[in-house]
Amino acid sequence: MLLRTRVNRLLLFNIMMNAVVSSALQQSLRRIARQQSAATTSHCTRLYATTTTAASSFHSETTDYARPVVQWYPGHIAKAERALSETLKAVDVVVEIRDARIPKATSHPMVAQWTAGKPRIIVLTRSDAVPGTAKAEWTTALDEFGTDDPLNQVLDLQVRNQARQAQNERLKYMTATDDSNNKNGDYSESSQSNILLFVNAKEGVGVKTLNRRIIQAGVHVQERRSRRGLLERPLRVGIIGYPNTGKSTLVNKLIGRKRAKTANTPGVTRSLQWIRVRTDQKQSFELLDSPGIIPATLLDQSDATLLAACNCIGDAAYDNQAVASFLCDWLLNMHRHEDKQLARQYAPQWRKKCLERYKFDPLSLTTRVDASGALRTGEDLLFDVADATCQGNPEDASRKILQDFRAGRMGPICLQVAPTCIEDGGQRKISGASGGLSGQDARIERQEQDMEDERMERAKLAQEAAKQQGLVLPPIVQQEKGSSMDDSLIGKGVFDGW
């Protein structure tokens, strides 16, 4: 009996010791795992910070306003883009929708490849939000240099050959009046018989003209079927473009009733859908309403920020204050450009509307304490609007500026200037305009001036302290703007403060 009790106690002791060791082992493992997780998190944080800093510094050097990178490519757009590239092969006529306020930024670089050899109609929507002079200049530029960026020719040899064959086949069934742009049958991205139209989809201005243009662009389809003894069939028309450029609104105007879901926000249409349309001439065609398509990577961040300002990408992809500051900086540079007619042609009422709504002149010198007497930058304008109308809240001010621009309260504005030569790359550059510094340059100059003032103040305090101790310091050096300290003066008794 005694032996059995001792054996039981021994077994119980072993069980308890095993439990203690197991608990200690588990705690040690948890501690090691936490340390490894913390190390991994720290490494990832450092890596992310380094990557973000590198990206921010890159865009600070290559653009006019330091801002976060704007990227937006949701899953439904990626899925729709894959399906659209295949569906467009069965389309007879392509209608590409662009925003008239930013014609170059809403031009997708892959559309020329997807629609090679097909008649394409370029529709610039929101024509009421753009000055008439800007529309005239963009019409001239697109007719002269082509509707695609001449510096972004992406078609490879195989696509070119297929496009040339398709165009030559189409020319067999077209009369001389149907094809006035390319009579020799040679194909190039700029020689494609693209048609340009300005349309106000919300009011329906230009919709009947678009109807006629679609029928004219697809006349070769019916002529081909007629020569083969076949009955006419409805044309298949594809509607493509960036998000929130008015595709679904235009579709509803074409069919005469609200069939496609619309809203003033990107990403409403999420799938492809075919809709039958019957015109006044008793002719019909089928419309392919598609989701907005956007490149997976927005290489030109100036275009990306303008897309955000025009509400063509999701609001979760950008910072309102950065976009509003960039928009103000863009308009300020346009008004300070050496070409004095530029602001009158592309933003004629902006300055007057700022005086009415914000109660100050945006082109006057800033009165802010940290930069009194300097030219206003986009960031200064944002904070001036915040002080004048939003009780000093810059986030509310940024939303107010963006809403005023999008709603047309600042008058008709076209943000991108029509190119004057092929080297312009689709638009004239207005950044860094003469007569005023861009936001980044002005900020750098202001920081350098603050550092110089601080240096002089430290030097004066040091001289006063040395004088009280009976010491004499060398004279203070007044460093000229843009110059640096000469290495030969080091150790020669020159004092520039601590």
Can you give keywords for this protein?
498 residues, alpha/beta, 6-stranded mixed β-sheet
Give an account of the 3D structure:
- By secondary structure, the protein is α/β, with parallel strands linked by helices.
- The chain has 15 helices and six strands.
- It has helices at 2-62, 75-87, 111-114, 132-145, 157-171, 207-217, 219-227, 247-255, 301-309, 320-335, 341-346, 350-358, 378-389, 394-406, 439-468, and strands at residues 93-99, 120-125, 195-198, 235-241, 273-278, 284-289.
- The N and C termini lie far apart (89 Å).
- Mean pLDDT is 76; it is low at 36-65, 179-192 and 432-439.
Q: What's the helix count?
A: 15
Strand composition percent = 5-15%
Q: Which residues form runs of ≥5 with pLDDT under 50?
A: 36-65, 179-192, 432-439
Task: Determine the structural class based on helices, strands and strand pairing.
Answer: alpha/beta
Rg from alpha-carbon coordinates: 32 Å
Q: Helices and strands, in N-to-C order?
A: HHEHEHHEHHEHEEHHHHHHH
Shape: elongated
Summed over residues and divided by their number, the pLDDT gives a mean of 76
What's the short story on this structure?
It is built from 15 helices and six strands. By secondary structure, the protein is an alpha/beta fold. It starts with a helix and ends in a 30-residue tail after the last helix.
